[in-house]
Every structure is written in structure tokens, then in C-alpha cells.
Amino acid sequence: MSARPPKFRLDALLASLALIIICAISLGNVIVRYATDASFAFTEEFSVFLLVILTFAGASVAARHNQHIRIELIEHYLPPGPRKVVFVLQWLAGVVVLGLMTWYGSKFALEEYQWHSLSPGLGLPNWIYVVWLPLLSAAILVRMTQNLVDRLRGRVDPEVIHES
């Protein structure tokens, strides 16, 4: 039995639920379309929305557990001091990108709310879909920071297999 804390947190649960719901509504739509030659109108709009949730929540989980795709060649061949500098530079690059996504995503969500924009398919308020962009971008930022602290302290997830 492992002494590690479990990986399932809110972001992992959100990603899992999004995937389960995508599978369920897609399967339901296929069955209904096959049986009745009609389809549910909401499946495409909800599937795209849930796919975005799945992507960002999954990225948050991957950021926490140091499982993002990256080039590790430099990390492997540097001594510990300069390696920590590379860790911080990687983190800073992520902070810049995700900070911009959080800032502009927040502005976009607020504008969608103020303008009362509706989705083209179902006519639901667009801000319901858009508000997840800044929220989950901020979650990735938090998880990246937690990962940076672990890496700077020398803690590495033993289950991660790096094949470089």
C-alpha cells in the first residue's frame, strides 16, 4: 500500500465526470439516432463544452503530478543547481501563458455575462460555458506551483516513468 496521497482531487473528479457524461450522451445519441432517425439537439454543444472541461481539468491533474509532455533532455544532464533554474524557468513560462488565459478568459466571461450572449444551439447563456476557461486556467496555475515546490524540494512522483 502506497503512502502517497491519492490523485483524486476536485480537478481529477471533474475530468472524470466530464468524460463519463460525454460517453453517456454520445452513446445515447447514437442509440436514439439508430432507432428513430432523429438525434438529440443538445449533444454536440454539451460534448464540446465537456471536452474543454476535460482538457483543462486533465491538464491540471497532469501539471500537479509532473506528467506534462516536455523535453527533459536538459533536465537530465544538468547538475542540481542549474536544474532548479530550469524548473523555475519552465514554471515562469507556464505562469505567463496561463496568467494571460486567466486574465483574458475572465474578461471574456464577464463580457458574455454583461451582453447576455446566448449559445447558438440551445440558447443557453454563453457565460456558463466560458467561465470555466479562467477557473480551470487558474487551477492549472495552482497545480503547476505545487509541482514546482515539490521539484525544488527534490520530491519526485515514483510512478512517473520518463522514457527519454
UniProtKB/TrEMBL annotation:
Q: Which InterPro entries match?
A: DctQ, TRAP_DctQ
* Membrane topology designation: Multi-pass membrane protein
Gene Ontology BP, a term: C4-dicarboxylate transport
Does this entry carry the keyword Membrane? yes
Cellular localisation: Cell inner membrane
Q: Domain named Tripartite ATP-independent periplasmic transporters DctQ component: which ranges?
A: 22-153
**Cellular component GO terms, alphabetically?**
plasma membrane
Question: What keywords are annotated for this sequence in UniProt?
Answer: Cell inner membrane, Cell membrane, Membrane, Transmembrane, Transmembrane helix, Transport
Please indicate if the UniProt record lists Transmembrane as a keyword.
Answer: yes
The GO molecular function terms of this record are: transmembrane transporter activity
Q: Where are the transmembrane segments?
A: 12-34, 46-64, 85-106, 126-145
Which superkingdom?
Bacteria
Pfam families recorded: DctQ
Oligomeric and partner information: The complex comprises the extracytoplasmic solute receptor protein and the two transmembrane proteins.
What role is this protein assigned? Part of the tripartite ATP-independent periplasmic (TRAP) transport system.
| Family to which this protein belongs | Belongs to the TRAP transporter small permease family.
**What name is this protein filed under?**
TRAP transporter small permease protein
Q: Which organism is it from?
A: Marinobacter subterrani
